[in-house]
């Protein structure tokens, strides 16, 4: 007898492991009868998970942490026993902002420090002539997109709270907002950056993997109470997702995976756009300029599926840096406990000491090396 599950997701490529697990039959092979429910906004996914309408969800890693800490909403302890991938976001800018940044850049245009400093000069020039602040779209206050934008801007001397406007937009609405001039840039996951480029309304300025080498992004999330009542179901869901992630990681499977993800009730964009993401080969400009990076989105390889508590600690540190949370040892412990490598290892029969220590690092392009044992010192260095 199969176990029925309702799992929410947002139409993004990093929901791929969940979608492929269901549509390729990997979940059914584990005795799971999964209904995937497509949502538009992260608040919808969070709320339906919190009140039990969803058994599990494709969720922003910082939302899982914020819910467990009671930040910005009700307090509901969440666990994340599976990473749905690392990286995968990009910063896309309007043609006008792209031209302005390139006109001010000194150094390599692929260097995030060079572009951050150029952005600071653009911002200063706009302020001098009395222009409105630039507006950047991100997907949620408690999101990697928010923290990645802030981290990049601040490295160049731009105050994300004073010098620009950051606004929340659901991922599927980013492209229209850029095309309509409602935002000047955005940070979002695939495939929406590529869609903007294909429509001629945006240029991909950076892959987030250039800002953070190993950025925790979306997780398979569930209520802690539900996971404790259903340990075998959790283990089965981890195994199905792991099998799907490994399937996507194999180059010979990517065209099939792209067709699965492209379906109207899944992501609903052209399969060729999704395939570019899976291959890490993206068109970054309407003129056809291509860029390739094997690290654009890590899924099913390099330990990307294992939830590392150090990455949760880094996200908590960004919450503190952005004024969303207070620094406290108990809060740090709670944040790190959201990521559950023990459940991942047990489900797959793996030893916890089988992993390289480097898999838990973040490796940001600027600032000191992150140490979860000294968050105050880390934040004080900025």
From TrEMBL:
Keywords: ATP-binding, Cell inner membrane, Cell membrane, Membrane, Nucleotide-binding, Transport. GO terms for cellular component: endomembrane system. It is found in: Endomembrane system. SUPFAM superfamilies: Periplasmic binding protein-like II. The keyword Metal-binding does not apply. GO terms for molecular function: ATP binding. Pfam families: NMT1_2. Its main location: membrane. PANTHER family: ALIPHATIC SULFONATES-BINDING PROTEIN-RELATED, BLL4572 PROTEIN. This is NitT/TauT family transport system ATP-binding protein. It comes from Bradyrhizobium canariense. The lineage of its organism: Bacteria, Pseudomonadati, Pseudomonadota, Alphaproteobacteria, Hyphomicrobiales.
